[in-house]
Write a structure and sequence with these properties.
The chain is α/β, with parallel strands linked by helices. It is built from three helices and nine strands. About 20% of the residues lie in helices and about 35% in strands. Bound molecules: inosinic acid (IMP) and magnesium ion. The site of magnesium ion has 5 residues, from strand 5.
Length: about 180
């Protein structure tokens, strides 16, 4: 099976939007410190670009979850593969994600993180596919709302490929 990728959101547009979100977060958290929690691996490109553009003090932590399922669908069963290194107690947490699709991963994760006693928890996602939502998730900062298409790049993969693309692309599968 061959596949092609075409550009959905250009590198320039992604960078511009991340700057805007960085400015907004810096404003919203003026006088505070933010603790960015990145969901690996998809969120890591967005996290780095976003963190560089936040002007209030920032600390970072990482976790990895796997949602048992196929390459293009998540099953809703979430397993923690790598937990955070630091406690969240009294921190102003922002979860940084690549994409909210069905919402299953995030709703599970947010509930779990809220139980750890942070001062606040917000969600920041580069992409949102609201048409696919199965579980309600409150998104505080969204980069782009996109249609129901399978996207890659800027951390997002198709079978572990294309994470390094500096733009958001759509994969087209030519079944032969
Ligand atoms: P959920 O369906 O909201 O639980 O999304 C779970 C995960 O599926 C996301 O964090 C992504 O890692 C992955 N995912 C969902 N949609 C896409 C896509 O269009 N491209 C690549 N990965 C995706
Ligand atoms: Mg993800």
């Amino acid at each position: 099976m061959a596949e092609k990728v075409h550009v959905l959101i250009s590198e320039e547009d992604v960078d511009k939007r991340i700057q805007e979100i960085g400015d907004q977060i810096s404003k919203d958290y003026a006088g505070k410190q933010v603790h960015l929690v990145c969901v690996l691996k998809g969120g890591v490109f967005f996290l780095c670009e976003l963190a560089k553009r936040i002007t209030v003090p920032v600390s970072l932590d990482f976790m990895s979850v796997s949602s048992y399922g196929s390459e293009t669908k998540s099953s809703g069963v979430v397993r923690i593969v790598k937990d955070l290194d630091e406690p969240l107690k009294d921190k102003e947490v922002i979860v940084v994600e690549d994409i909210v699709d069905s919402g299953r991963t995030l709703s599970y994760l947010l509930e779990m993180l809220k139980d750890r006693g942070p001062k606040s928890v917000k969600l920041c996602t580069l992409l949102d596919k609201p048409e696919r939502r199965v579980v309600d998730v409150n998104v505080d900062y969204t980069g782009f709302t996109i249609p129901d298409e399978f996207v890659v790049g800027y951390g997002l993969d198709y079978a572990q490929k294309y994470r390094n693309l500096p733009y958001i692309g759509v994969v087209e599968l030519d079944e032969e």
